[in-house]
Amino acid sequence: MVFTTPAIHALRRRFPDAQLSYIVEPAAAPVVLNNPNLSDVIVAPRVRGLGGMLADVALGRRLKAARYDVAIDFHGGPRASLLTWLSGAPVRIGYEIAGRGWMYTRRIARPRELRRRHSVENQWDLLDPLDIRPPTRSIDPVEMPADGTTTAAVEARLRQCGVRANDPIVVVHVSAGNPFRRWPIEHFVALIAKLAGDDQRRRFVVTSGPSEGDAAARVIADARSALGEDAAARVVSCGEFSLAELRALFDRAALYIGGDSGPLHIAATTHVPIVGLYGPTLPVRSAPWRSDRYRTESVDVGELPCRPCDQRVCAPGDFRCLTRIQPDQVFEACVRAIRGPSET
Predict the structure, then answer these.
(1) How do beta strands 106-108 and 235-236 pair?
(2) Do residues 159 and 93 share a domain?
(3) CA 213 – CA 234 distance, rounded (Å)
(4) CATH number of the domain within which 171 lies
(5) Is residue 81 located within the same domain as residue 188?
(6) What is the pLDDT of residues 82-131, one digit of tens each?
(7) What is the Cα Rg of the chain in Å?
């Protein structure tokens, strides 16, 4: 979702007077709801069974009645392909997908192998039929505008957790979508202890996805124990954050640390220094897509015969692409991100 936002900007620039609509499921809708380049955001809940199929057919009729000229399928899944076809747009652009390619009028080849090419550039191939020039990080960064009401609510929540207005906040995101991208909990704890010792003003906000609250709680408890009673309050527990709340939190943060997952890319829509941890994925493919003015450090283990992988089976069995990334290595990247050259 975040990686499509540069394309939204480019479409608006190429067609300034166009009606640009974006179809999205509810969970990811906050990424685009406040995007100024969109004319309309259509939120389409996923419903299982016959009811879901009937709802999608009804949405397809709505799209066809609106008489869109072009439909672009950035997702490529069965539901997205169907809605693209049901739109009836005379130009329907999508990837060459076995069994569904016929739903598009313009099909774009997508190699099956994991290319050493950024996902934004891969998706940009879908814009080639519309004569849109290649993307650059400075002109076409990822975007997710902040919501003022949410920003105020997050500020109030931080105050309730004991974080003062001038406290530098380090956001540590401990989940990464699946075990193939999850750095060990004990490594997060060791990193927080080192960062806390490096600057006693820092406050640490530990976040996670909805399914990994237990992992976040363990990091908070173990980090507090490692810091001792006098400094334990510097690791704050603020509960779960929605996508919109994470976006507001990152605006307030002095540093973001996390694996290759959605929150890292939401952080990239802000100016916060980022330290990304990459295991089975490659920074060249999914590092934050934003201007080089904003400090970004990508940490990985280097070349491995099994890396990158399809994240279904760990061939060596020990997740070495992540477990071999050491806390000291990440700490050094954090120092570079925080104390690097000043923004110009």
Answers:
(1) unpaired
(2) no
(3) 19
(4) 3.40.50.2000
(5) no
(6) 999 999 999 999 999 989 999 999 999 987 776 789 999 999 999 999 99
(7) 21
Percent of the chain with pLDDT over 90: 85
Structural domain that includes position 323: 148-339
From the number of C-beta atoms within 10 Å of its C-beta (0-12, 13-18, 19+), residue 73 rates as: buried
Which of 95, 130, 165 terminates a domain? The answer is 130
Which residue from 108, 114, 105 is spatially nearest to 96, judged by alpha carbons? Answer: 108
Q: How many distinct structural domains can be found in the chain?
A: 2
Residue 309 · residue 315 · CB < 8 Å: yes
Q: Are residues 232 and 307 both part of a single domain? A: yes
> Distance (Å, rounded) from C-alpha 250 to C-alpha 163?
14
**CB count in 10 Å sphere of residue 78:** 12
83 and 212 co-located in one domain: no
Place of tokens 């109030």: 156
Question: From CA 86, how far away is CA 84, in angstroms rounded?
Answer: 6
Q: Which two tokens stand for residue 222?
A: 């173990």
Residue 58's nearest CA partner among 86, 90, 77, 79 is 86
The DSSP code for 128 is G
Asked, for residue 309, whether it belongs to a domain, the answer is yes
Q: Where are the beta strands (DSSP E) in the chain?
A: 21-24, 40-43, 70-72, 91-95, 106-108, 169-173, 203-207, 235-236, 255-259, 274-278, 296-300
C-alpha neighbours within 13 Å on the C-beta side of residue 133: 6
Phi, psi dihedrals of residue 20, rounded to the nearest 5°: -105, 115
Tell me which of 104, 130, 156 is where a domain ends: 130
Q: Are residues 158 and 118 in the same domain?
A: no
